[in-house]
Design goal:
Layout: H1 2-15, H2 23-45, H3 51-76, H4 80-106, H5 113-157, H6 168-175, E1 185-191, H7 194-201, H8 203-217, E2 222-228, E3 231-236, H9 241-259, E4 269-275, H10 282-298, E5 304-308, E6 316-319
Helix pairs in contact: 1-2, 1-3, 2-3, 3-4, 4-5, 7-8, 8-9
Transmembrane segments: 27-49, 55-75, 87-105, 111-133
Catalytic activity: 2 GTP = 3',3'-c-di-GMP + 2 diphosphate
EC number: 2.7.7.65
Length: 321
C-alpha cells in the first residue's frame, strides 16, 4: 500500500505541466515514491518490532499530506491538470486521513475501508479520464489554431493587401506549384498613363482603379498577380492564350469604367505576352514579357504584343491579335 500511494507522486508530477514555475512541485511529488518505499520496508519489518506499524502509519500520513500540499501549490500556480487531479484525489485523500486517524487513535483497522477505497478510486478514474480528454481537446484546439494562424500568415505573405490578388511571392508559388498545370503563357500588363489618374484625382482614386483592374483580371483560366505599382502579371492556361490575354487586357478598361465612374476617360492597358517554355523560370518568362510590354508602349500603348523567336539573333515582336 505504501508503494502504491508513493507511486501517485510521480504519477501526479507527470500530469502537471512541464513549466519552470512547476519544477519544485514536480520534484517534491517525485520524492514521495522514496517515502513509499521506506514505508513498505517498515511494513515488512513490523513482525520484528511492533513500532514499525506506527512508523508505517506516520509515513503514510506524510505522503498524503505531501501529496495534498503539492496539489494545492500546483493549483495556486495555475496548473489546469492539477485542478482535475485535486478533484479526483480528494476522496482518496479524505479516506486516507480518516483511516489513519482511526487506526492511530484506536489501534484497530477500519472496517469496510477497502470498499470505500474502491469507490474513491472509481471517482478518481472518472475525473482523471475527464481531465485527459479535456487536455487532449485543449492541445488539439491549440494545434488547430496554430495551423490556422500559419495558413493565414502564408496567405497574407503571398497576397497583395490592396487588390487582394497574389503578389510577386504568390505568383512565384503558383508558377512552381506541382498541384497546378504549367501555364501556357504569361502576360505582363501595365496601366497606361496611370500617373495622370493619381495627379488628377488623388491616390485614393488611384487605389480604387487598381482594385478595379485586379477585378478585371479575374477570368477563367487566368491567375492574376500584382507585381508592383500599376504593373500586373497574369499566368494564362489553355491553348488559346493569345485571345484570352487580349480579352483580359480589354476587360481592364470595362472594369474600371464600371467600378470607378468618377474617372471620365477610359483607362487602357498595354501588355506583353510570351509563351512559357518547358525550361522557363518565372524570371525568364517575365523578362520576355517585359520586353514585349515596353515594345507595346513604344508602339503607342493600348495594345498587346507577343514575344516570338525570329529567324535572326534578336527577337521580333508581333501583334498577338
Amino acid at each position: 500500500m505504501s508503494i502504491a500511494i508513493g507511486s501517485t507522486g510521480p504519477f501526479l508530477a507527470a500530469y502537471i505541466e512541464n513549466r519552470p514555475r512547476f519544477a519544485r512541485i514536480r520534484y517534491w511529488l517525485r520524492t514521495l515514491f522514496i517515502v513509499g518505499v521506506v514505508g513498505a520496508i517498515a511494513t515488512a519489518l513490523a513482525p520484528l518490532w511492533p513500532g514499525f506499524d506506527l512508523v508505517h502509519d506516520l509515513l503514510l500520513l506524510t505522503m498524503i499530506l505531501g501529496m495534498t500540499a503539492g496539489l494545492a501549490a500546483a493549483v495556486r500556480s495555475g496548473s489546469r491538470f492539477a485542478q482535475y487531479q485535486a478533484v479526483g484525489y480528494a476522496p482518496l485523500i479524505i479516506l486516507g486521513l480518516l483511516v489513519l486517524a482511526y487506526e492511530l487513535s484506536t489501534g484497530a483497522p477500519v472496517p469496510y475501508w477497502p470498499v470505500a477505497a474502491l469507490l474513491a478510486v472509481l471517482v478518481d478514474f472518472m475525473v482523471t479520464a475527464g481531465g485527459v480528454i479535456n487536455g487532449y481537446l485543449t492541445v488539439k484546439r491549440e494545434r488547430d489554431e496554430a495551423w490556422a494562424d500559419v495558413s493565414e500568415a502564408r496567405i497574407a505573405v503571398a497576397t497583395d493587401p490592396l487588390t487582394e490578388i497574389a503578389n510577386r511571392r504568390g505568383l512565384a508559388l503558383r508558377f512552381r506549384d506541382p498541384a497546378h498545370p504549367r501555364p501556357a503563357a504569361l502576360a505582363v500588363i501595365d496601366c497606361d498613363h496611370f500617373k495622370r489618374i493619381n495627379d488628377m484625382f488623388g491616390h485614393d482614386t488611384g487605389d480604387e482603379v487598381l482594385i478595379a483592374v485586379a477585378e478585371g483580371l479575374k477570368q477563367e483560366n487566368v491567375f492574376p498577380a500584382r507585381q508592383g505599382g500599376e504593373e500586373f502579371v497574369v499566368l494564362i492556361y489553355g491553348e488559346d492564350y493569345q485571345r484570352l490575354a487580349e480579352t483580359v487586357r480589354r476587360q481592364i478598361t470595362l472594369s474600371v469604367l464600371e467600378k470607378v465612374p468618377e474617372v471620365p476617360f477610359p483607362v487602357t492597358a498595354s501588355a506583353g505576352l510570351t509563351e512559357v517554355r518547358p525550361n522557363d523560370t518565372l524570371d525568364s518568362a517575365v523578362k520576355r514579357g517585359d520586353e514585349a510590354l515596353y515594345a507595346a508602349k513604344d508602339a503607342g500603348r493600348d495594345q498587346l504584343l507577343l514575344w516570338q523567336d525570329g529567324k535572326h539573333s534578336q527577337p521580333r515582336l508581333v501583334h498577338g491579335v
